[in-house]
Amino acid sequence: MRDVAVVGFAQRQMQDYDGSPQCAELLVPLFAECYEQTGWSRKDIGFWCSGSSDYLAGRSFSFVSAIDAIGVLPPVNESHVEMDAAWALYEAWLKIQTGEVDTALVFGFGKSSAGVLRRTLALQLDPYTMTPLWPDTVSIAALQARLGIDAGLWDEAAMAEVVDRSLTDAEKNEYAVRSGGSSVEDLLARPMYADPLRKHDAAPVTDGAAAIVLAAGDRARDVRDRPAWIAGLAHNADGLHLGTRDLTRSGSAERAAAAAGGAAGVDVAELHAPFSHQELILRTALGLGDETRVNPSGGALAGNPMFTGGAIRIGEAARRIWDGTADRALGHATSGPALQQNLVCVMEGRN
Question: Are strands 341-348 and 328-335 parallel, antiparallel or unpaired?
Fold first, then answer.
């Protein structure tokens, strides 16, 4: 296996919807930031891979317009996944493993403000038995949270503790859309949104984009003194039908973590948990102990652009390696209803 590291990362999350930039307008400054971080130009990128969704954009082959942000000449080696950009990172990592290229730039983008997100995401459900009922994502998550509460696995106070910690940490994150801790008591006093969820238990609807740069071997060492070397990378999926799996746990996250080498020795974990109780599920599934600091960026509860939120978790984890905050970090991404699909990326700093 070739040694591959994360060496660049840029993100943008829109605070409000005042005619948010189109995808190419979101991406151009992010690519420029990645070039500045690495000292490269577009000619140094061997492979490009993006993650987005035609359903979210409301038109076919919507990702093609994003390629305008790359530029016309010289022609580029490019691919796309209809998933969070974390899965585009997986494809790019595999491309580098083949030896065909030494570098890659991965990017994702999503404009949730173009429609009603919780309704749009019903289209990812089974088209015969579930989508016709139009169960929205918040309601499905509420059912999942209620199952865990009724089983005695967590309670509303534990969910509020996740929110309080996340939004307090988000105060130090310049990209956070929502921040500002309160207290568990204050959070529990707020009205229900979708019982047992309150609005702060769900990630805010956000437009945004992100870009991550990968490089192999000496190309990575040329860019950074302390690259975030990918020690393990894997993804897994549970069945789509909600009735065929235990929603209070995440078997696919467990399997992905095991395939990626496990969470032993992880100092920092950035978990893609769009709902507060899902962090509790993921902590157990990934085997994270109290010694691991979870979501120092604030996590998805502070900002969760669709098809970018998972990639941001990997980028934020890589930053902890770069600055020496962590020697071993874990980035996690999820997709599908109620933690159906999960990707785990374990990174480490090497002397």
Answer: antiparallel
Q: Is 42 exposed, middle or buried (0-12, 13-18, 19+ CB in 10 A)?
A: middle
Res. 67: pLDDT tops 90:
no
179 neighbors 204 (Cβ within 8 angstroms): no
**pTM for this model (two decimals):** 0.96
Distance CA 339, CA 257 (A): 14
Distance CA 26, CA 31 (A): 9
d(CA 145, CA 141): 6
Q: At what angle do helices 276-286 and 137-150 cross, to 10 degrees?
A: 60
334: helix, strand or coil: strand
pLDDT in tens, 216-254: 999 999 999 999 999 999 999 999 999 999 999 999 999
* Of the candidate ranges 111-120, 130-139, 305-314, the one whose mean pLDDT is the lowest: 111-120
